[in-house]
Amino acid sequence: MVSHSGLITVMTRAARKAAPRLRRDFGEVEQLQVSRKGPADFVSMADKRAEQTIVEELRNARPDWGMLLEESGEVEGNPDKPRWIVDPLDGTTNFLHGVPHFAISIAVEDPRGAAGRPEVTHALIYQPLTDESFWAEKGRGAWLQDGRLRVSARRDLSETLIGTGIPHCGRGDPARWAKIYAAIGSHVSGVRRFGSAALDLAWVAAGRMDGFWEDDLDIWDTAAGVLLVREAGGFVSDYRGSDQMFKRGEYIAGNGDIHSRLHKLIAGALR
C-alpha cells in the first residue's frame, strides 16, 4: 500500500463521496434537469450537486482555505494558505449525452511555491465510472491507485497517439486549431478527442496517450493534470515553450522528445 499525505486522503474522500450520486445521475441522464450556461456549454444539476458535496468535505478539512470552483467561482480564504481548485465534473457534455468519459478534478495550489509564485502541489483526478484515482504530490511522483505512473517512452512521432480538444460552438478558434492539426496529424499514428482535458492529461501521465495539445482551457480543467504529467516524468508548457500554461490557457504535454517535437510543429504552424 503506497502511503500518501493527508491532503490526498481528504481529496480522495471528497471525490468518492460525490461519485455515487454522479453515477446514479449518469444512469438517469435523460431525466436530468439541465440549464444552459452558454453556447454548447451546459451545466447540470449533477454538476452542481457534486461541487456542493466536494466543497463541504474540503471545507470541513481546511476551513480557512480559499477555493476556485468551476461553477461557483472564487471563494476567498486566508491568502497565506493554499487554495483548492475544483472541477466537479470535467466532461459535462459527455455526461449529458450518456458518453461514459468524465472525471472529478481537485488540485491544491500553494501561494508560496517555487520562485515565490503560486504552485500546484497536490492533484487528484478521479473517474467515477471506472473507480480510477490518478493522484500526485509534488516531488513524490504520480500514481494510479497504488501503481506508479510514467509517461510513454516512445520517441518516434509516427508511433504516437496524441490527444487534443476540438473547438466548438462558443469555445476556441477553429482556424487556429486546423493549422495545428494540419501540422501534427500527418506525423502521428492517431489523434483523439475524448472530451475531458483532465482525463487526457491523466492518460498522458499513465502512458495511455503519448502527448496532448489544447488551448482555451481553464485552470480547473488542467491544474491537477499538469502536476500528474510532470510527476510522471513528462513535460508541460504553453505553445511558446514557456511555463505560462495557466495564464495563456495553452498546453503541450508529453515526454521530453514528444513534447519538443509537438512544440516545434505547433510553433511552425502558428508563425
Automatic annotation (TrEMBL):
CDD domains from the UniProt entry: IMPase
Repressor among keywords: no
SUPFAM superfamilies (UniProt xref): Carbohydrate phosphatase (SSF56655)
Keyword NAD found: no
Database matches in InterPro entries: IMPase, Inositol_monoP_metal-BS, Inositol_monophosphatase-like, Inositol_monophosphatase_CS, Inositol_monophosphatase_SuhB
Reactions performed catalytically: a myo-inositol phosphate + H2O = myo-inositol + phosphate
This enzyme's EC code(s): 3.1.3.25
Signal sequence, renumbered to the chain: none
Keywords annotated in UniProt: Hydrolase, Magnesium, Metal-binding
Pfam families from the UniProt entry: Inositol_P
Family membership noted in the UniProt record: Belongs to the inositol monophosphatase superfamily.
Protein name per the record: Inositol-1-monophosphatase
Organism this protein belongs to: Sphingomonas hankyongi
